[in-house]
Amino acid sequence: MSQISNLNKIKGGEFLIKETEAADIFIPEQWDEEQLMIAKTCADFLEAEVYPKLDALDNHEEGLMESLMDKAGELGILGVSVPEEYGGFGKSFNTSMLVAEVIGAGHSFAVAMSAHTGIGTLPILYYGNAEQKAKYVPKLATGEWKAAYCLTEPNSGSDANSGKTKAVLSPDGKHYVINGQKMWITNGGFADIFIVFAKIDDDENLSAFIVERGFGGITMNPEEHKMGIKGSSTRQIFFNDCHVPVENLLSERGNGFKIAVNILNIGRIKLAGAAIGASKAVVDKAVNYSNERIQFKLPISKFGAIRYKIAEMATKIYAVESAMYRAGQNIDDAYDALVADGMEPGKAKLKSTEQFAVECAILKVYGSEALDYVTDEGVQIYGGMGFSAEAPMDRAYRDSRINRIFEGTNEINRLLTVDMMLKRAMKGELNLMGPAQAVAQELMSIPDFNQEDEGLFAYEKRLIKNIKKATLMAAGAAVQKLMMTLGKEQEILMNIADMASLAYVAESALLRTEKLIGIRGEEACATQIDMVRIYLNEAMDQVWLHGKEALNSFAEGDELRMMMMGLKRFTKTEPFNVKDARQRVAKVVIEKNKYPF
Amino acid sequence: MSQISNLNKIKGGEFLIKETEAADIFIPEQWDEEQLMIAKTCADFLEAEVYPKLDALDNHEEGLMESLMDKAGELGILGVSVPEEYGGFGKSFNTSMLVAEVIGAGHSFAVAMSAHTGIGTLPILYYGNAEQKAKYVPKLATGEWKAAYCLTEPNSGSDANSGKTKAVLSPDGKHYVINGQKMWITNGGFADIFIVFAKIDDDENLSAFIVERGFGGITMNPEEHKMGIKGSSTRQIFFNDCHVPVENLLSERGNGFKIAVNILNIGRIKLAGAAIGASKAVVDKAVNYSNERIQFKLPISKFGAIRYKIAEMATKIYAVESAMYRAGQNIDDAYDALVADGMEPGKAKLKSTEQFAVECAILKVYGSEALDYVTDEGVQIYGGMGFSAEAPMDRAYRDSRINRIFEGTNEINRLLTVDMMLKRAMKGELNLMGPAQAVAQELMSIPDFNQEDEGLFAYEKRLIKNIKKATLMAAGAAVQKLMMTLGKEQEILMNIADMASLAYVAESALLRTEKLIGIRGEEACATQIDMVRIYLNEAMDQVWLHGKEALNSFAEGDELRMMMMGLKRFTKTEPFNVKDARQRVAKVVIEKNKYPF
Ligand SMILES: Cc1cc2nc3c(=O)[nH]c(=O)nc-3n(C[C@H](O)[C@H](O)[C@H](O)COP(=O)(O)OP(=O)(O)OC[C@H]3O[C@@H](n4cnc5c(N)ncnc54)[C@H](O)[C@@H]3O)c2cc1C
Ligand SMILES: Cc1cc2nc3c(=O)[nH]c(=O)nc-3n(C[C@H](O)[C@H](O)[C@H](O)COP(=O)(O)OP(=O)(O)OC[C@H]3O[C@@H](n4cnc5c(N)ncnc54)[C@H](O)[C@@H]3O)c2cc1C
């Protein structure tokens, strides 16, 4: 259910060309009682059940992960976003994001749970027919059955649709007989249900099947040895004449790749949620350590080098968190609107996430990279103890690293960010061309150097507009210049992806803070204001660098000169003492001795 | 022995204010037959003895590390830089750097060996008296005895001089009785000799002792469990009334901290060597993988996103390697000059390294960060396999991470970089003030916009001069403005440290390439020229960002405006298509299927 009364019908990707009002976004300071209670249940569960068992989990203590999943199921944690008719609680998408965030601090458990509730359960919930849903979803919502998702194969990773696993109808027409090999399957070791992607006969596209472990013909290799999330079961799985009843085909023949992609959209934004939860936990520990650890007769939290890190950690978390609940709410709002228009809920859920696939990809990238930054600096703050397996940073660092790889590598997601926007533009769903042309026009005109920014954030809002202009300028020119070959110019696409992403995340942090000021007043939000400015300051620098690199990659001579002048104009900033701002942010975090926002 | 006839008497830190001729630096393309043979011995040793045992090492197979050290000793690898009179081969410093580089690809073995030959052996070699050297060094040079270095304590890490370990003269005056606890001691589990730092009575400063395991009173905790370099023995060591004969005091009472610091200087540049060796090995594997791994019907090495990484990896390695052998040769040259002036060789070795302590700190930071970058992208290139403990990137990634922590954290080394330069300036040993004032003057004058850069690298040399000017401007102004409090402004110091470091590393890459062109001709060096330009392009951007951040941290109003104009001028570049340059570099690396420079 939407928490924003003023339904803003913004579409996915439109952040680049439309203004959003602060009032129209959801901010995590607005969780209601119930949501906070759900969050507390999750946090308590980690504290009581998961944290004492982290070593045992990583050592694959027999049955432990399953029993934790069972307990989570008993508490209702696995069914938060499953509709009530299927034994869940039917909570909003953002509520399920909140659960992902809180549980995200739970290391391997978080991965197991997210695979189960996300890529494991949702294909059935969203693409299953009535019988399939009735049969499987209630058991999944309570954790009685556990699920895994089998897409990747040894020779088919990023290129997911190239899988070789085959499904052939049995002579009697009652079964699909599946043969093939899947790899890297999370929860593989104990799952009861496998969502298996395979090609029927010589189809070009995948189909999806619900496969029960009991169907037979399933064998697996031992647990993979991994850098991190060691407690998460990861298996290579072999299907040898695995007989799947025809009624277990999910959706339609050839629809599998679409299912895979759409389910991954949800997985991506949820991954950002989990990454932010994990990041906060790392900051809590690192700031605490920095307050306790004395060197040169001072707690190391007194040193500028450490305060810098603490402020950067907090700022990145704050910014990505702002974007992620903003997008989550957009998804909720779109869902509500679609259902109000009469769409079937499962379909509406998919459509609403698909609508914001660009934002999901951005969040996947920026969430996982925030976590990598945070854990890396967490290790560094701990010094030698950061390298000790007996202190918490080692596990955090190793567990973090997977997030840039799965749910689509960050390279793939960066490429998708731009690719999806351009495709929508081409289809006329997203009016990028108009605004891009307007920017091109603006380049020709005399710049207005006497801009008066009045009121709080007027200046910052202008900067964000400018990032968007810079992005549109670079993207527009690249499209015009390179046309059909742009798809091969990955470096340029990645530059543009980052420019767009920075616009989105910086704007989200600003809107959140603006809304918060409306509630708490400016004074109470001084630190948040600092964080917005710190983030924006860096974003402007990054936009400049990405823009320069992109433009120099395809333009020359006068055209380049003109666009570079534009880029300079669009990334121009007023002097800002970012050091002092970081010191102020660090001070608050250090005093509270945890991530406090 | 120096390999550069034209002895250039440049002093440490002077790179910031003096021009260096390409002819005056050593480049690794100039290794002589003997050096190449030594390198090959080391590489063969890794191939034959270490690589097949990496898992066994990480599992602490009983006696394995010691036996590998023994074998390395038999091959002479441990005694390369030990004088012949003590059973070594008396090779130059840069030759020992080469050994550090090649062995650097040897994971835990590299750490064990570097602790033994470096911080374990050198204190005796450089600070021992004749008897001490005669007694210990020959056994260390062959590996018959193995050494560890005990400086760190639970409450004394970065603040190394604050250790609590005590040494008290025994009533009969024959022994120092040592009590205390040391931590994180590499090779602790099997070392025969411990260099132990402790305070005699209530001294303010540490003293250093040569402690034999057999002296008794030494106990240790089990092996530490660590994120990486798991094969390296790391122990907590307790000294309980450990009786050390008075003749085993190293150097003089109270001289321990100086010993520790000077030995660490050498350790720092050697760490860069090891990091570069490890980095090259990672590139070899990653590029090979990228050539073999097919996705979307193409080897992934065809994708711009991957080529970007490969080019960046190679460029960083090339640049840091250039700087590290340049500094190594400076140390060799300074040593030769001091010995020619009649200084005792041990003392001369120390003085020559101390002289280049700034460069050693820079290299420690940039070497370890290059390796972290390279391993991180190595993981990413491997995709899911990057996260597998059965593929090589997992170990590389985990082993890499220690390098930013030990031998002085990178924070401490960045701070030291500037601190040492300013102290030298204060003492009149380094004329920073003159050049800084000249830059300040230049700011007032009308810039000469019609600079004609003639000849290869004329433009690039101007850019490097400009980085130095920007650094001097920021440093000079910070000193003037903040005076005595600058030491507390760590953020500013770190900005300046990076600006200076970028000048040094970029210049080194350029000089190396210039010299190489003189030998091979321009055409044969096209890729190296590209790498210089790629590195410099990024360096200019970074200098701009660091400079801006620094200046905005302490200046305001007109002063800030003027300096920002200067910074803009100093970081101004011509358009450069860095994407195409990276593509060209990647092409070469991919074709050679390894790091080929
Ligand atoms: C611990 C773990 C758990 C996992 N859990 C599951 C699971 O439950 N179910 C499941 O189906 N899968 C799972 N995976 C698989 C995961 O989704 C894949 O590893 C991921 O999609 C990347 O595929 P890959 O490993 O084949 O890498 P590749 O696709 O081979 O990629 C290698 C490198 O090439 C790059 N690359 C590839 N194609 C392109 C391109 N066109 N352009 C630019 N760069 C490109 C990638 O970004 C990457 O850097 C898991 C993996 C791991 C490691
Ligand atoms: C695997 C391993 C092997 C090692 N081997 C040896 C060995 O053989 N012999 C030995 O003696 N030691 C050894 N060490 C110890 C190593 O040198 C120390 O870990 C290192 O010096 C950092 O000290 P610390 O761990 O106490 O961190 P701390 O000094 O507590 O540092 C914690 C954090 O605070 C920062 N910090 C500290 N002081 C300041 C300051 N003044 N300003 C700004 N930031 C500051 C640091 O940069 C770091 O980020 C080893 C350590 C490890 C992990």
UniProtKB/TrEMBL annotation, chains A, B:
TM spans, by residue? none
Q: Which Pfam families match?
A: Acyl-CoA-dh_C, Acyl-CoA_dh_1, Acyl-CoA_dh_M, Acyl-CoA_dh_N
Domain Acyl-CoA dehydrogenase-like C-terminal residues, every copy? 466-569
Q: Belongs to which family?
A: Belongs to the acyl-CoA dehydrogenase family.
- Matching InterPro entries, A to Z? Acyl-CoA-dh-like_C (IPR049426), Acyl-CoA_DH_CS (IPR006089), Acyl-CoA_Oxase/DH_mid-dom (IPR006091), Acyl-CoA_Oxase/DH_mid-dom_sf (IPR046373), AcylCo_DH-like_C (IPR036250), AcylCo_DH/oxidase_C (IPR009075), AcylCoA_DH/ox_N (IPR013786), AcylCoA_DH/ox_N_sf (IPR037069)
Q: What is the lineage of its organism?
A: Bacteria, Pseudomonadati, Bacteroidota, Sphingobacteriia, Sphingobacteriales
Instruction: Cite the Acyl-CoA oxidase/dehydrogenase middle domain residue spans from the record.
Output: 148-242
What's the protein name? Acyl-CoA dehydrogenase
